[in-house]
Specification:
Blueprint (H helix, E strand, L loop, with lengths): L1 H60 L6 E5 L5 E4 L14 H9 L1 E8 L4 E9 L5 E7 L3 H7 L1 H31 L11 H4 L4 H54 L5 H32 L8 E4 H11 L1 H7 L2 E6 L3 E4 L1 H17 L6 E9 L2 E8 L21 H6 L6 H11 L3 E7 L3 E9 L7
Parallel strand pairs: 7-9
Antiparallel strand pairs: 1-2, 1-5, 3-4, 4-5, 6-8, 9-10, 10-12, 11-12
Helix pairs in contact: 1-4, 6-7, 7-12, 8-10, 10-12
Bound molecules: adenosine-5'-diphosphate.
Adenosine-5'-diphosphate binds next to helix 10 and helix 12.
Length: 452
């Protein structure tokens, strides 16, 4: 950038010099021509006085002068010429300066001389006897002028260039300095911001990117913290059943369990291993949802049918718990990921069964409305205190830890529900009161995409 500014200034300086020369040289040329005229004007007056007094004799005495003298009769005949024989010279009555001198007393012209084959300046003066005295000199050419003044002209150009170089290098560094000193870490703190309004958009953009980077960094830190917490919790959750399994298995192995109790210990090992397997399944589901279910295409899915499948799968669990589960509503098609929607309904219904007392009922309903599809899972179970309602969707958060563990809960069910809803742009509402039961409602927005 600095080089570009530097050479631009030099270029402008050179152009200015050329333009100045282009204007100055013709002006100088005009001025010098006028001076030449001035000189022969005064010379013609002097020589005229001499001729009026002594005629040809005076002219014969003129020596060493750098002008040409011509004396012409009022009829245009040449009486005398200092450079060419008057015999070979044609009548001069048609010459512009002669015509003017005869008419007005004096005349001037500048033209190419056929006689001498060069450009000349003429001045003529009418004498008392009516004859005309003419003086002429060689008019200097522009080339001659340039030759004469080449040294001073070159000198001025050289000085101009040196000055231009100095100014260009000073200015270019000065212009570039604030940009070189830009503090990219704190864009708004830059003084260049005040100096150059042109870089304002750049600074603002930088500031925006900085803020975005900060936000991304914080988000990343948060995500990383959540991951760390999750890994620690998951390891802990997996270790507990593993310890139980390994402890009981060791007792059995060492024959420390009475034959009558063996069945009981085997059942405990079975229960713990099932818990582990459910936990691993939930972790896999959650990590799939965490990645935004990439690579899985959405398809036309009937949410009612999905709910039906989930309720059917949980029939035995509900029977064992002495809970009646009913499904009502209508077929409701939407664009979605069937296995994700299944996980959502399954976890809500499983929780409703798990946290309800024997003899109560769970109602699942799927309805279609103007604003979308609504799924509700309602139970008359233990309910959730208001202050806990905001936290139950967090990973591994349980209101009553021991109850959750007793019934084989992993603490991940509602996290799976939350992610599954998010992937489908759905909203979850919870109405619950301790001792009265809970109603989880998921609102799926109107699906405007064409059927696939
Ligand atoms: P868990 O595997 O422990 O059920 P979830 O993430 O599914 O884990 O639920 C988190 C906690 O929310 C549960 O431990 C429970 O305390 C509470 N909870 C969830 N659903 C219900 C419900 N229908 N009734 C009462 N409490 C519930």
């Amino acid at each position: 950038m600095r080089r570009k500014i530097f050479f631009s200034i030099i270029f402008v300086a050179l152009a200015m010099q050329l333009v100045s020369l282009g204007i100055a040289v013709p002006l100088l040329y005009r001025h010098l021509t006028e001076e030449q005229f001035q000189r022969i004007r005064s010379e013609v007056a002097l020589v005229g006085m001499g001729v009026e007094r002594n005629g040809l004799d005076y002219l014969e005495t003129l020596e060493g002068v750098d002008f040409r003298v011509t004396w012409i009769t009022p009829e245009g005949a040449i009486l005398y010429d200092s450079e060419v024989s008057s015999a070979v010279m044609e009548n001069h009555l048609s010459r512009e300066e002669i015509v003017d001198a005869l008419a007005n007393g004096c005349g001037e012209s500048s033209r190419y001389s056929d006689t001498l084959s060069e450009r000349r300046l003429y001045t003529a003066r009418r004498l008392d006897d009516g004859s005309v005295l003419r003086l002429s000199i060689n008019q200097m050419t522009i080339l001659y002028l340039l030759g004469q003044y080449s040294l001073p002209l070159l000198g001025v150009t050289a000085v101009g260039l040196v000055v231009a170089f100095a100014i260009a290098s000073l200015l270019s560094s000065k212009i570039v300095q604030p940009i070189n000193e830009l503090n990219l870490d704190e864009p708004m703190g830059n003084t260049a911001y005040d100096v150059y309004t042109e870089i304002k958009p750049l600074i603002l953009r930088l500031e925006q990117q900085h803020r975005q980077l900060e936000r991304d960094k914080k988000e990343l830190e948060k995500t990383s913290l959540i991951r760390q917490e999750f890994t620690a919790n998951a390891s802990h959750e997996l270790k507990t059943p593993l310890h139980v399994i390994s402890g009981y298995a060791e007792l059995l192995e060492n024959g420390l369990v009475k034959e009558d109790d063996a069945h009981h210990f085997a059942a405990l090992i079975h229960k713990e291993s099932q818990r582990m397997s459910k936990l691993v399944e939930d972790i896999i589901d959650l990590s799939f949802l965490d990645s935004g279910a990439v690579g899985v295409t959405r398809e036309r899915t009937d949410l009612y049918r999905i709910a039906q499948n989930a309720v059917d799968s949980l029939e035995k669990t509900a029977d064992d718990a002495g809970i009646t589960v009913t499904l009502q509503g209508e077929h409701a098609e939407m664009n979605g990921i069937p296995q994700v929607l299944y996980g959502l309904v399954y976890n809500l219904v499983l929780n409703a069964i798990t946290y309800s007392d024997r003899g109560t009922s769970v109602k699942v309903s799927v309805t279609r409305g103007d604003h979308g599809i609504r799924l509700t899972v309602l139970d008359h179970g233990i309910g959730i205190p208001l202050e806990e309602q905001g936290r139950i969707f967090e990973r591994f958060y349980r209101v009553d830890k021991s109850r959750s563990k007793d019934v084989g809960g992993t603490g991940l069910g509602l996290s799976i529900v939350k992610h599954a809803a998010h992937i489908h742009s759905a909203e979850i509402k919870l109405q619950s009161a301790p001792g009265k039961g809970s109603a989880f409602t998921v609102y799926f927005p109107v699906d405007e995409s064409p059927e696939k």
